[in-house]
Amino acid sequence: MTDSTPDFINQWINLAQPRLGAEIVSCSDDAFAECCRMLKPEAPVFIDGKFDDFGKWMDGWETRRRRNGGYDHAIVKLGLPGEIKGIDIDTTHFTGNYPPAASLEACYSEAVPDENSDWSELIASTSLNGNSHHYFEIDNRNCFTHIRLNLYPDGGVARLRVHGKVVSDASALDKSALHNLAAVELGARAIAWNDAHFGAVENLLNPGKGINMGDGWETRRRREPGNDWSIIELGHVGDIEQIILDTAFFKGNYPDRCSIQAAMVGAGTADSIVTQSQFWQELLPPQKMEMDKVHEFSGEVQSIGPVSHIRVNMFPDGGISRVRILGKIHG
């Protein structure tokens, strides 16, 4: 367990997002607060004086006081199968009602798992504190579809985050078809950016349309020369044929222009890739942007061969809702 915010929070996506399909498939008890609240994307809140039919309203999962031995547990189906890199068990606002300890297991299962499933222990029983984040680095290269959180003996957890790498099988995809290689479902991820003051870069890769202006990548107002940028590792190497840049909901704060550079990247750290990216070839030369609009480019896309990474440039700053990189999987 680590105390300070670990790198995996920004390096890997939360596989337990409901918008990706994550859901609670079973829980032993949620008498005080529904288990599904534990997966809510927003930070937990405390509302003084708010009560419901079950008692004090809490923004998380809370079980009753256990008087008969045993322990409470919940099984979560991850939104996408993946390698788990880190866990955050968050007890924010739970003070006299947090679990004294917890453990976490994971399995790969096509069906709803049960006690007889092949569970792997990722976090052994560990003491928890109230009103705290508990970060755990995970060293396991297996692919998992479900996790089971165990509370000893009972209590409440505000949020559970399961950060990891989406596992996408290229052999199962049609090589002759166009795929959005910047889709989180195919394993795309943001690896570096110069600024994300108002909205996370990973939002660019989310499925579907943006739900509001906060569901996109937005930088602060630039007061110095230069431009804002982000680097995305595509889910699969591919030959790019079409690019879609969507500025949905961005009106007085959309970029004046955007361009995309790309390259086939070998081994390297995020820092070395940032340095190299300044010299990558242009996949899409600078294009004028408009507010709240889907911009589609095909003839403007340059043929530069297979690529594994892209750099999205905004001139000078602003916000984009979604980036779609349509291409054929290479190899």
SSE layout and pairings?
Blueprint: H1 8-11, E1 13-14, E2 23-27, E3 51-52, E4 55-56, E5 61-62, E6 72-90, E7 101-107, E8 120-127, E9 133-137, E10 144-152, E11 156-157, E12 159-166, E13 179-180, E14 189-193, E15 217-218, E16 228-246, E17 257-263, H2 270-277, E18 281-288, E19 294-297, E20 307-315, E21 319-320, E22 322-329
Antiparallel strand pairs: 1-12, 2-6, 3-4, 5-11, 6-9, 6-10, 6-12, 7-8, 7-10, 13-22, 14-16, 15-21, 16-19, 16-20, 16-22, 17-18, 17-20
Short description:
The chain has 331 residues and is mostly beta strands. Helix content is 4%, strand content 41%.
Protein architecture, described:
- The protein is mainly beta.
- The chain folds into two domains: 8-166, Galactose-binding domain-like (Jelly Rolls, Sandwich), CATH 2.60.120; 170-329, Jelly Rolls (Sandwich), CATH 2.60.120.260.
- The chain has two helices and 22 strands.
- The strands form five sheets. Strands 1, 2, 6, 7, 8, 9, 10 and 12 form an eight-stranded antiparallel β-sheet that branches. Strands 13, 14, 16, 17, 18, 19, 20 and 22 form an eight-stranded antiparallel β-sheet that branches.
- A hairpin with a 2-residue loop joins β3 (51-52) and β4 (55-56).
- Major sheet details: 8 strands, antiparallel
Q: Structural class, judged by helices and strands?
A: mainly beta
Q: What fraction of the residues are assigned to beta strands by DSSP?
A: 35-45%
CATH topology annotation of the largest domain = Jelly Rolls
Quaternary structure: single chain
Low-confidence segments, ≥5 residues, pLDDT <50? none
In whole angstroms, how far apart are the ends?
40 Å
Quantity of strands, as a count = 22
Rg over CA atoms? 22 Å
What count of structural domains? 2
What is the element string, with H for helices and E for strands?
A: HEEEEEEEEEEEEEEEEEHEEEEE
Figure out the total of helices. Answer: 2
CATH architecture of the largest domain: Sandwich
Determine and state the CATH class of the largest domain.
Answer: Mainly Beta
> CATH-wise, what's the superfamily of the largest domain?
Galactose-binding domain-like
